[in-house]
Structure formats: structure tokens, C-alpha cells
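Researcher: Structure for this, please.
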Amino acid sequence: MKDNKSKDNVKGALFLVLSAFLYSIMPVLIRFLGQGGLPPMAQVFFRYIVAFISALIYFFFLTKAKIAIHKKDILFILLATVFGYALTNLFFTYGILYTQVGNALFLFYSYAIITPILGYLFLKDKINRFNIMSLFLSLLALLLLVQPNSISTWKIGGFFAILAALGQAVYLILRKKLYSYSSAFLMLSNTFIGVITLGILSIIFEKNLYFKGGINHLSLKTWITTLIFGVDNFLAWLTMTKGFEYFKATAGSLILLSELLFGILFAFIFFKEVPTTLTVIGGMLLLFSISTVILKGEN
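Model: Predicted structure, C-alpha cell format:
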């Protein structure tokens, strides 16, 4: 029994760390698409189309599953797909585009603090002393890693980053409420509703792209980046959803903070942001916090 629990811990942790890695690529892709002339809603809409096709293939041809929805879960599914998935990614995109990347990430990663609180309130998740210690260390590491100093630049971008954090936390909680549904089904429903929601919003608010020839001026590089982004989007949410089959929202959300470590690496490679001494210390604290959750946190 203990061996099975340890294997579940390792399996869940691997899925969540992989998800964090895939997520850490997204800010880079968002900036590339923004520079390529693709507006925010269209960015999310087009990548959702790719993610939905990927989810469709995975659901019907690889898992060969069937769709079965219980009436009592419809409200939770709609909330998870519309707010927790579709709009959360849109909010995150606005956050990255309209404020400094570091500021947006600092605010977005607050979902790791919000989720345990919501998990305790709505799921009655027990928080052991190792979870509490990890939560405290993660918050300290977050402050050291990102150093949110340019408050005046947050403005609208920061507001959307906070909305994205709330949406992410809500999704993680609802994922546990919808534990009887497979990762494949949730990914299919997420991307399907995402395509509809963002397609409608994009056509209404970004008319120039569709009706005044804007789409004709998009480069091949932009389309290829969108394709890569869509596949990355699918794999990131799929691995995250599978990871939460083994971990509580409380512990799993802290593991997802490993995205920050990957983010530091990508910020150095693509944006020439050299880590400071405080950043290195924060990274070490975060690594210790994540290791504590994996080894001692309850799954």
C-alpha cells in the first residue's frame, strides 16, 4: 500500500513538473505572436483550435473513450471550461502583453497561494505541517524570484494577471470536484468550449483581423508559432490534469511553481534577463519547497 502511494506521488509529480515546463514556454510564444501582429483574443482562439484537434485525436483515437456527462456536474464543467480554461488563458495573455513579464508572472503565480485556501474551504483538504511550510517557503521564493518592483507598470496587465490566477485556482479546485472524469474528457471539453468562447469574442472585438484583411498579413512564422503553441497548450493542460489525479489541489499547486524555475531559464535565453543573487536564493528555496511537497505532502 505504501509502495503504491509512493509510486502515485512520483507519477503525479512527474506529470506536474512536465506541465510546468510546458507552461513556462508560453510567455515566450505569447510575445512572439504579439510581435507577429496577432491580437490577444485571436492568439488564444487559433491555438485553441489546434489544441482542440489534438484533444479530439487523443480522446477518440488514442484513449477510445466515450462522452458521458452527469447532469449534476454540468454547472461545474461549464465553470471549469469557460472561466477556468477559456478565459484564464485569455487573461494570462493580456497580462503578459500589457505589463512586464516578471510582474505578470508574479501575480499569476499567486494561484499557488489561492488554491490551498480554496481547497481548504471547498474541498476540506487537510493541510499538514509540511504543506504549510512549503506554502510559506514558496511565497518567500516567489518574492525573491520575481521581485515585483515596478508597481506603476502593472495597471491593466496586472489586473488581468490576477484574474488569470483566480481562474487557474478555480480550475484546480473544480478538477478535484470532477475527479470521476478522465483527463482526456476534460481536455476535450476545455478546448471545445474554448474555441467557441474565444472565437465569438475575437470576431466581435477584433473585426479588423477578419474583415479588413489583417489575417492576410500574418507571416508563415506566426502561423507555425501558433501551431506549436496549440500543441504545447494541449500537452500542458493534459499533463496538469493527469497530475491532479494523484495529488491534492493543495500540494499539486505548489509543485506547479517549478514553472518559475524554467521561466528564469527561458527569460535568460530569450529576454537576456540575468538572474540576480536573490533570484538564485529564491530558486533554491522553491526547489526545497517543491521537494518537501513531493516527499511529505499528502496525495
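Researcher: Any notable elements?
Model: The chain has a mean pLDDT of 81. The first helix runs from residue 2 to 24.
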